[in-house]
Amino acid sequence: MASRAPLLDRDPGAVLFHRSSGAVTAQAFLADVGRVAAALPRGTYVLNLCQDRYAFAVAFAAGLVTGRTALLNVDAADAGAFPGAIPIGDSCLEAPAAPPSRIAEIPCDHLAAIVFTSGSTGAPVAHAKRWGSLVQRSRAAAEAFGLSAGAILGTVPPQHMYGFETTVLLPLHADIASWCGAAFFPGDVAAAVAACPRPRTLVTTPLLMRTLLDSGVALEIGRVISATAPLDPAVASRAEAAWDAPVHEIFGATECGSIAHRRTTAGEVWTPYPGVDLALDDAGTEVRAQDAEAVWLADVLDAAPGGFRLVGRRTDVIKLAGRRASLVGLDRLLLGIAGVDDGAFVVPDAADSRLVAVVVAPGRTAASILADLRPVMEPIFLPRRVIRVERLPRNALGKLPRQALLALLEGA
């Protein structure tokens, strides 16, 4: 294992970020990092609350070069476990002038961040991230996707592992810049695309991709990258036709970060990142990579030539009357029904495995939705109830925290 790794691998004049006010070079970024680092009070942890992507990157780097650990995607209850944590918000960029931070070499075993899961399968869980592992994964992603110019335009927040890796860390270690302005509503995304240099890589989620496609907004982009949930190949095909750009997916999890990729329309097989080794056996899958501790996945994988196929998350696979199914697979069938804008299958109680479908479907009745499910689904997995709601409690990444879903069911 290498002993140290740099904060960034870029030339002083290289553009790392694009803000609405203009481009930010590596030299300017280091100057901002130096100002924020000099203003930090005593404390071991930095609670990064920044909403602005650039402020988030500066705050993270300032904590890193001063030997601190960032707390990411943490709620108030979990933050209480880290007494003395330094809260940092967007106003950190107003820190007084200070000497620029040098291109620091940080110990690879330094605890750079503690990232909490989204809670989609239960209570949020904390995962430690060492600096060397984060650097190696950034370099591997850049190599896997051939990122050597242009800009990344992320619709995902930097606090979550997906957005943190792709829109904050990648510009530090690959020849690409990250857009830091608004990019969520279709109009914002179109404006951001126009403001970024080519080639443009859109980093988004399946849910927002469907929203962009339904809006009819025209996007001149060179590539789409999706994660957080399996992408329906039909949606990927539609996106490729609409935007004339290949659509790729990242496979990963908070516990291990991103580790594999695929072009959705090319088939089911995932290709591991360079330097990532997967040991598959009956006990599960162990992920091994440079500068990282071995991690056991919570997903079920099957070996395939050149990579692997994803069966589903262990907590996502259900068994009824001797038959197995993945909740993600059932969700895909539900979302394929005409008039269903959003939806999900839920197992309300561990002691009662009968399924419930929660849907956003204006103009459709519960009975008509159930009728459309019968021809495409085994009878044993048909929901005992179809509950229509105005919206699902998705978080900023489009995921559905289980506790929020259960609360929605109680209200219904």
CATH class of the largest domain: Alpha Beta
How much of the sequence lies in strands comes to 25-35%
Q: What is the quaternary state of this protein?
A: single chain
Shape: globular
**Largest sheet, if any?**
9 strands, mixed
Mean pLDDT figure? 90
Report on this structure.
- The chain has 412 residues and is α/β, with parallel strands linked by helices.
- The chain folds into two domains: 4-313, Rossmann fold, CATH 3.40.50; 321-411, GMP Synthetase, Chain A, domain 3.
- Helix content is 28%, strand content 29%.
- The protein contains eleven helices and 26 strands.
- The chain has helices spanning 26-39, 53-65, 76-79, 131-145, 161-173, 186-195, 206-215, 233-243, 327-335, 366-373, 402-411; strands at 4-6, 15-19, 22-25, 45-48, 69-72, 86-88, 105-107, 111-116, 126-130, 151-154, 177-179, 200-204, 223-226, 247-253, 257-263, 271-272, 276-281, 284-289, 295-296, 299-304, 307-313, 317-320, 323-326, 342-346, 356-360, 385-388.
- Strands 3-2-11-10-12-13-14-15-16 form a nine-stranded mixed beta sheet, with helices on both faces. The chain has a five-stranded mixed beta sheet with strand order 6-4-5-8-9. Strands 17-18-19 form a three-stranded antiparallel beta sheet, with no helix packed on it.
- Helix 4 crosses helix 5 (161-173) and helix 7 crosses helix 8 (233-243).
- The relative contact order is 0.10.
